[in-house]
């Protein structure tokens, strides 16, 4: 049986969502997460990349989401060569901050988005090989930001290495450019968990100097663009135990709007999917 494609966004608290997606009255951290959890059953939390949360905060994330809800969390900058060589202590601190969420059973994967300086080499592969032991039983979700890993003559070796080391390749939808920090679009699975991140296709703003994240990911997908992913997602669903399609185009409400478009396309194609739907209205009763 094919896996269900679970659709979500990369954050529920980006500034764009606060301004353009949440209705009036949904104005506290608790109300926003509960509102999100009524419409999606998975989210990627990117804020720990910038600063590790207090364990009391991650405990509240678990408590405020429904049974069956899934979190994936972006690794801290210290874990992915954005600062210096990662250490066991960097991973320990991350795990400690997320411990309540992990103990709740709702934390599934850790997004390891490596710095563009993390080019393919024997040393880099050795660093990757350590990730599984540092994160077990969580799933290491590996996103490369240097195309040396995914060039045509390196691709098969990279994917085979990830599979042999229990690492999940992150498939990307990104700007169609030859920039060295943009990988080509490859829908591939190296783990029972398949993971796709939608960054948008704004080549003009991807490497803009001094820009904010919302500038880089300023892209509202069209149905035609997302239709390109229906067949690959259906294939990943046949090959994997779990499939996640996560939208990181975080300008305004572009991520949930794009998610709704993808959900409609998957429904039309008969591909099992969850998320990106409005809950049924609450019926008023006299009692």
What's the structural blueprint in terms of helices and strands?
Blueprint: E1 5-10, H1 15-20, H2 29-39, E2 42-45, H3 55-63, E3 70-74, H4 88-97, H5 99-103, E4 107-113, H6 122-135, E5 139-143, H7 155-164, E6 168-173, E7 193-198, H8 213-216, H9 223-227, H10 230-239, E8 242-247, H11 254-269, E9 273-274
Parallel strand pairs: 1-2, 1-8, 1-9, 2-3, 3-4, 4-5, 5-6, 6-7, 7-8
Q: How is the quaternary structure best described?
A: single chain
Number of strands: 9
Alpha-beta classification: alpha/beta
| Low-confidence residue ranges | none
Overall mean pLDDT stands at 94
CATH class: Alpha Beta
**Sheet having the most strands:** 8 strands, parallel, barrel
Q: Kindly identify the CATH topology.
A: TIM Barrel
Number of domains: 1
The CATH architecture? Alpha-Beta Barrel
State the fourth-level CATH superfamily. Answer: Protein of unknown function UPF0759
Helix content: 25-40%
The gyration radius over C-alpha positions equals 18 Å
The proportion of residues in beta strands is 15-25%
How many H/I helical runs?
11
Order of strands in the sheet with the most strands?
Answer: 1-2-3-4-5-6-7-8
Q: How far from one another are the termini?
A: 43 Å
Tell me, what's the shape?
Answer: globular
**Could you spell the SSE succession in H and E letters?**
EHHEHEHHEHEHEEHHHEHE
């Amino acid at each position: 049986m094919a896996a269900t494609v679970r659709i979500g966004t990369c954050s529920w608290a980006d500034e764009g969502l606060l301004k353009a997606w949440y209705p009036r009255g949904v104005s506290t951290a608790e109300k926003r997460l509960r509102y999100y959890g009524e419409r999606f059953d998975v989210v990627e939390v990117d804020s720990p990349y910038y600063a590790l949360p207090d364990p009391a905060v991650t405990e509240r994330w678990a408590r405020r989401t429904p049974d069956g809800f899934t979190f994936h969390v972006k690794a801290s900058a210290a874990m992915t060569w954005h600062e210096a060589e990662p250490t066991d202590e960097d991973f320990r601190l991350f795990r400690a901050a997320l411990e309540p969420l992990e103990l709740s059973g709702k934390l599934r994967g850790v997004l390891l988005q490596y710095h563009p300086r993390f080019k393919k080499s024997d040393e880099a592969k050795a660093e990757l090989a350590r990730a599984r032991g540092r994160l077990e039983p969580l799933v290491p979700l590996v996103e490369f930001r240097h195309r040396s890993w995914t060039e045509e003559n390196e691709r098969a070796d990279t994917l085979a290495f990830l599979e042999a080391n229990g690492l999940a390749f992150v498939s990307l939808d990104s700007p169609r450019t030859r920039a060295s920090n943009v990988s080509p679009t490859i829908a591939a699975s190296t783990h029972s968990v398949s993971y796709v991140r939608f960054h948008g296709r704004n080549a003009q703003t991807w490497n803009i100097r001094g820009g904010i994240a919302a500038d880089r990911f300023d892209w509202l997908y069209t149905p035609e663009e997302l239709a390109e992913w229906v067949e690959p997602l259906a294939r990943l669903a046949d090959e994997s135990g779990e499939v996640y399609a996560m939208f990181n185009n975080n300008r305004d409400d572009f991520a949930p709007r794009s998610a709704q478009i993808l959900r409609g396309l998957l429904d039309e194609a008969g591909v099992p999917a969850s998320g990106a739907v409005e809950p049924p209205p609450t019926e008023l009763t006299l009692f």
